[in-house]
Amino acid sequence: QVELEESGxxxxxxxxxxxxxxxxxxxxxRMNDMGWYRQAPGKQRDLVATIxxxxxxxxxxxxxxxxxxxxxxxxxxxxxxxNNLKPxxxxxxxxxxxxxxxxxxxxxxxxxxxxxVTVSS
Length: 121
Known about the structure:
By secondary structure, this protein is mostly beta strands. It has no helices and 11 strands. Helices cover 0% and strands 59% of the residues. The chain is elongated, with a radius of gyration of 14 Å. The protein starts with a strand and ends with a strand.
């Protein structure tokens, strides 16, 4: 089965930067739309950024100008470059992927396990 592997989280001071990575691996498949979401303690899981198979991007207002989402279709991976981090960015960040198996054309939607981002003041 396809699974998502996330990395890049950690502890950083206010104003610092982190780069999150999410790679999909498993059965033969193709990826469609992908995105990043985050969830802070006691809060809902909110959209951070999305990117379509064609490269069109969308960002939450709170991260515009600071975060950049990108993808590498050859590697079935997406990335989130986070600059000028603020304490309010502290959360668990989740990768989300939509795709389909090329053998059956059955679609799937998966969440990564999450990676912790902590921004200290």
